[in-house]
Automatic annotation (TrEMBL):
Keywords noted in UniProt: Cytoplasm, Repressor, Translation regulation
Organism: Marinomonas aquiplantarum
Protein name as annotated: Ribosomal silencing factor RsfS
Keyword Repressor tagged: yes
Functional summary from the UniProt entry: Functions as a ribosomal silencing factor. Interacts with ribosomal protein uL14 (rplN), blocking formation of intersubunit bridge B8. Prevents association of the 30S and 50S ribosomal subunits and the formation of functional ribosomes, thus repressing translation.
Oligomeric form and interacting partners: Interacts with ribosomal protein uL14 (rplN).
Length: 117
């Protein structure tokens, strides 16, 4: 499949849709474009278990591939991980267990008010 051009907003919408499709919880979107050149958006989502975290990350990866976007990569996709990262070029998705999300507190780290969705 050839790579198609999607805007950051389109990638964001597809990523959120993929998380919602597999019942991701507490989906938060941070607009980080003014803070880094690495990405425009960061999406943070909570899974109910390590298995759910894995499924959420896998669904984001596969859904975006079906839309014609080849993800740059992933981290933590093994079944025992409590944090999966999916790099979608202008959007980076973090899927975490509740415990990992509380511990790392990415929202506070970036100190950015989440966009309402």
């Amino acid at each position: 499949m050839s790579q198609i051009n999607l805007t950051a907003d389109q990638i964001l919408a597809f990523a959120v849709e993929a998380l919602e499709d597999v019942k991701g919880d507490k989906i938060t979107v941070l607009n980080v474009a003014d803070h880094t050149d690495m990405m425009d958006y960061m999406v943070i989502c909570t899974g109910t278990s390590k298995r759910h975290v894995h499924s959420l990350g896998q669904n984001v990866f596969e859904f975006l591939k079906q839309k014609g976007l080849q993800p740059l990569g992933t981290e933590g996709r093994d079944m025992g991980s409590d944090w999966v990262l999916v790099d979608l070029h202008d959007v980076v998705v973090h899927v975490m267990t509740e415990e990992a999300r509380t511990f790392y507190d990415l929202e506070k780290l970036w100190d950015i008010k989440p966009e309402e969705r």
